[in-house]
Amino acid sequence: MAGLRDFLNKSDPLFSASNGRLTLTKGSPSVSLTELGTGAGTLQVNLHWTARQVESMARPPGNGWRGLLRPTLFKPMEMPSSGSQIVAVDLDLGCLYELADGTKGVVQPLGGLFGDLQRAPYIRLSRDDRSGAPSGEMMYIDLAKKEMFKRILIFVYIYDETPAFDRAHAVVTLFLPGGPPIEVKLDERAPQARSCAVALIENRDGNLTVRREAKYVYGFQAELDRLYGFGMQWQRGYKPVSG
What we know:
Blueprint: H1 2-7, E1 15-16, E2 21-23, E3 30-32, E4 42-48, E5 53-55, E6 84-86, E7 91-99, E8 104-107, E9 115-116, E10 123-125, E11 137-142, E12 149-158, E13 170-175, E14 182-186, E15 195-204, E16 207-217, H2 221-228
Parallel strand pairs: 2-14
Antiparallel strand pairs: 1-2, 3-16, 4-11, 4-13, 5-6, 7-8, 7-12, 9-10, 10-11, 12-15, 13-14, 15-16
């Protein structure tokens, strides 16, 4: 592990000596998983957030935009400034993926598209946390199948009537097998953003890299798709009642 220790020296701007994590920032946005010594194993991607004091929000007409995925239908949510209260935050973790054979798809709670770790896409979302519990939401990626991956875009979106990203203390952490955790904090001010492209994992000739994106958009998955050129077709989606 000497190479890893050399990589994680205190002068490295990514490395936080206080918690032993790599924090991807605007100044240091990417890191090579190969250089970190990460080989076969399961990459665990965790989304954690907490509720906090936020401004009251007016409910949009009807039932709100539950899972609408066509960008032409998206409208930013109004954030009235009257009063404040603790409200439940419901953030969802997901990813768009493109495999080496050209297969494209999405893993997310909407539509019950939880993926599969034993067969393609070798990505599995374990659960849908709707409360910001300590364990948060976890996604698993089988790095033993890394040759099958071309790119994986990890994203987070706000489900239904919940606060903006900068009010949720959201953090996405990648737990590497045999390596240090890599975290991306979603704390930038984006008052009306509904989705955020968090990190992009790419396979470049066998070298897996992860790059901080932190791109906030006012739409949902279809807008992220357009931004990154996946070229998929989208329709209305709903969460399973049991979550």
